[in-house]
Amino acid sequence: MTTTLPRTTIGPASLTAREISAWFGDHKVLDRVSLTMRAGEVTALIGPSGCGKSTFLRILNRMHELVAGAALAGEVLLDDGDIYAPGQRVTDARRHIGMVFQKPNPFPAMSIYDNVLAGLRLTGTRASRRVKDALVEETLTKAGLWREVADRLRQPGGALSGGQQQRLCIARALAVRPRVLLMDEPCSALDPTSTRRIEETIAELAADVTVVIVTHNMQQAARVSQRCAFFLAEQGTPGVIVEHGTTTAMFDHPRDQRTLDYVHGRFG
Ligand SMILES: Nc1ncnc2c1ncn2[C@@H]1O[C@H](COP(=O)(O)OP(=O)(O)OP(=O)(O)O)[C@@H](O)[C@H]1O
């Protein structure tokens, strides 16, 4: 079945995780984590390696269930709708809640133009050439890549630099008009200049899409996010959120000593 392309952006949605617990087999990795990620804001998930940030992120768009033996409890609400409610389609959740991964993953042999539109093909969305051209320009512009590739849209995505490939992946994610964009360490494979470029892009995106970003880089969290959540898994216990709040409060006067130590690089 095909649907026509939505012409207008629906706009950013809030995402609310309620009492999320997660397991890989009998290994419990998250324990009753609750967090509201506000519409139109950038929320950074921070914390030491292995405390469950990526698992939490993948639960937010139903990717956790792709892992054999993975289980979860709790609710995830996109505005008011539970993405795990019976009858809710996985494809709908993933369309509204897009994801950008650590390593840029464009289709290397596919043209830049077709890479941007790849998500539409997967969802069976049809559009005229004129609408597609406009969408490619709009999303590449939002991803901060248009000026660099406008004259070579037919060249393969794999020929771009790493930073450009990551911005191409952001454009591809935006082309299906998600309401939330999840980013799992999107700059960790990039050089400082490309990292800055992606950070500028993230700041500009928030008007259109709610952003949730996992980052190990505290300066990056401080630069791009309005809110932070600090995850921790102490001595083999499942990950929990120790503290969350505005980024300013989390960095300048956190309530918990462990948050203060972490954001100032004293552990993790
Ligand atoms: N596919 C998997 N199968 C089994 N265990 C997993 C799997 N993915 C993650 N885990 C385990 O779940 C726990 C949380 O991992 P997760 O990747 O979510 O943490 P993280 O905070 O994102 O870490 P990092 O910052 O290093 O990416 C870890 O103990 C990890 O070993």
From TrEMBL:
GO MF annotations in UniProt: ATP binding; ATP hydrolysis activity; phosphate transmembrane transporter activity
Descriptive protein name: Phosphate transport system ATP-binding protein
Species this protein is from: Phytomonospora endophytica
Domain ABC transporter as annotated: residue spans: 15-263
One GO cellular component, as annotated: membrane
One Gene Ontology term from the biological process aspect of the record: phosphate ion transmembrane transport
Entry-linked InterPro entries: AAA+_ATPase (IPR003593), ABC_transporter-like_ATP-bd (IPR003439), ABC_transporter-like_CS (IPR017871), P-loop_NTPase (IPR027417), PstB-like (IPR005670)
Transmembrane residue ranges: none
Matches recorded under Pfam families: ABC_tran (PF00005)
Keyword annotations from UniProtKB, A to Z: ATP-binding, Nucleotide-binding, Translocase, Transport
